[in-house]
Design a protein that fits this description.
This protein is α+β, with helices and mostly antiparallel strands. It has helices at 21-28, 44-63, 77-83, 85-88, 111-121, 167-187, 242-253, 265-269, 295-298, 321-331, 359-374, 388-398, 408-411, 431-438; strands spanning 32-36, 39-42, 67-68, 74-76, 94-97, 103-106, 130-139, 154-164, 192-196, 207-213, 219-224, 257-259, 276-291, 301-303, 309-311, 313-319, 333-334, 337-338, 349-353, 379-382, 402-406, 415-420, 426-430. It is globular and about 80 Å long. It binds adenosine-5'-triphosphate (ATP) and magnesium ion (3 copies). InterPro entries: aa-tRNA-synt_IIb, aa-tRNA-synth_II, aa-tRNA-synth_II/BPL/LPL, Anticodon-bd, Anticodon-bd_dom_sf, Pro-tRNA-ligase_IIa, Pro-tRNA-synth_IIa_bac-type, Pro-tRNA_synthetase.
Length: 439
């Protein structure tokens, strides 16, 4: 992509309305634009990152055996009357009327709809287990939308829903998601800690929030610091191996970790003092086993091997890709801007032609742009006729992992400079050297 032809509306000034660093940087880097309170347009740079995050979420869902579909954003109120949640949901639900005065709503979540789809087709235990997910926009009329896409009203969510014959099966489905979440957040460059979460009236202990530690987080959390060094389950994890998966989950839940709602001071006292962490955290994912809460009232039943019909056991599993982007920036930035992990960076390389119009730098830049792109690199080529200082600032702000600086001085010696955004390390390489290094 040539920057001269791209749409990257960088802000020079720090926007006053933004209270936390991720919000400021997303506005300054031209990633998002507020269209109404808690409602954002995703500008091209932001959309690139959102798509990358969603792709990683999707890959790990698929790896664990979940199956993607796509449900609509608009739902009918009658569906929610079946579960009894239409009235219970309260003001967070955006209620709409169509031209026939039918009551509709913009979905804040999809338990009812997925249960309706399930009961329309599945009759037998032989079709279980099943886990269906989608990545779709949600709307929640948050009391206090704030911090940009961290707590917005319209936001992207991956929500998965598992169906099993009995509780044992449902626990296995839960464990699959648990492990998929560990892998997902690690691939996004984040250290997420699963913490015991409130299960509400259902009881049991099968609900975990995945929390990123960050001073700007809205949750208060308490945990054992060893979790920060725990090993992430590998890509070749066998998700059908019930006992080894349970072993992984047991290990990841053996030490203390809870949000303030579930905090147990006496249990936390048992954590060695030098391992006690009390911090702020951001909820980036939430998994939940809720048994027959929806299948029972909505009549989602299957025939068991004994010929008896029974309501299916369900769980739901959410991740917020849009909130995750803010969380990644909170975890990875410096005074000059964003530092993207390579896995979600909007571009792989920023190519800075430091003297546009100079035959030498133009030729070397064009050649690098061509060769890196041909080798599969996603390159943002700063070909604008601007001063080097502005180019450095833009490249640092948008946080692309590698910068290639092409200036007349080093080029006279046949070299260009390669800079790593995260470490600041610089290296002089030949043009060929850069291509082989980055590809
Ligand atoms: P919170 O406690 O922050 O209000 P929640 O518990 O209501 O979140 P869930 O219903 O568990 O959220 O939804 C699953 C995921 O969706 C959350 O873990 C989070 O990543 C994301 N999410 C929820 N609400 C928002 C929001 N207002 N803006 C952005 N992402 C959100
Ligand atoms: Mg909420
Ligand atoms: Mg929550
Ligand atoms: Mg939650």
């Amino acid at each position: 992509m040539r920057l001269s032809r791209y749409f990257l509306p960088i802000l020079r000034e720090t926007p006053k309305e933004a209270e936390i660093v991720s919000h400021r940087l997303m506005l300054r880097a031209g990633m998002i634009r507020q269209e109404a309170a808690g409602i954002y347009a995703w500008l091209p740079l932001g959309l690139r990152v959102l798509n990358k995050v969603s792709a990683i979420v999707r890959e790990e869902q698929n790896r664990s055996g979940a199956i993607e579909l796509l449900m609509p954003t608009i739902q009918s109120a009658d569906l929610w009357r079946e579960s009894g949640r239409y009235d219970a949901y309260g003001k967070e639900m955006l209620r709409i009327q169509d031209r026939h005065e039918r009551e509709m709503l913009f979905g804040p979540t999809n338990e009812e709809m997925i249960t309706e789809i399930f009961r329309g087709y599945v009759r037998s235990y032989k079709d279980l287990p099943l886990n269906l997910y989608h990545i779709q926009w949600k709307f929640r009329d948050e009391m206090r939308p704030r911090f940009g896409v961290m707590r917005s009203r319209e936001f992207l969510m991956k929500d998965a829903y598992s169906f099993d014959l009995d509780q044992a099966g449902a626990v296995h489905s839960y464990n699959k998601m648990f492990v998929a979440y560990l892998r997902t957040f690690a691939r996004l460059g984040l250290k997420a800690i699963p913490m015991r979460a409130d299960t509400g009236p259902i009881g049991g202990n099968l609900s975990h929030e995945f929390i990123i530690l960050a001073s700007t987080g809205e949750s208060e959390v308490f945990c054992h610091s060893d979790y920060l060094d725990y090993e992430i389950p590998p890509a070749d994890t066998d998700f059908d191996d019930v006992s080894s998966l349970q072993g992984t989950v047991d290990k990841w839940t053996s030490l203390y970790a809870a949000t303030s709602e579930m905090h147990d001071t006496a249990a936390f006292d048992g954590v060695p003092d030098d391992k006690k962490m009390s911090a702020r955290g951001i909820e980036v994912g939430h998994i939940f086993y809720f048994g027959t809460k929806y299948s029972e009232p909505m009549g989602a039943k299957v025939m068991g091997p004994d010929g008896q019909e029974r309501p299916v056991h369900m769980g739901s599993y959410g991740i917020g890709p849009s909130r995750l982007i803010a969380a990644i920036i909170e975890a990875s930035h410096d005074e000059n801007g964003i530092i993207w992990p390579e896995s979600v960076a909007p571009f792989d390389v920023a190519l800075l032609n430091l003297k546009v119009g100079d035959a030498g730098t133009d030729a070397a830049s064009e050649r690098l742009y061509r060769e890196l792109s041909a080798a599969g690199c996603d390159v943002l080529y700063d070909d604008r006729d601007e001063r080097p200082g502005g180019k450095f600032a833009t490249a640092d702000l948008i946080g692309v992992p590698w910068q290639v600086l092409i200036g007349p001085k080093s080029l006279a010696e046949g070299k260009v400079e390669l800079k790593n955004r995260a470490t600041g390390a610089r290296e002089l390489l030949s043009v060929d050297g850069v291509v082989s290094r980055l590809t």
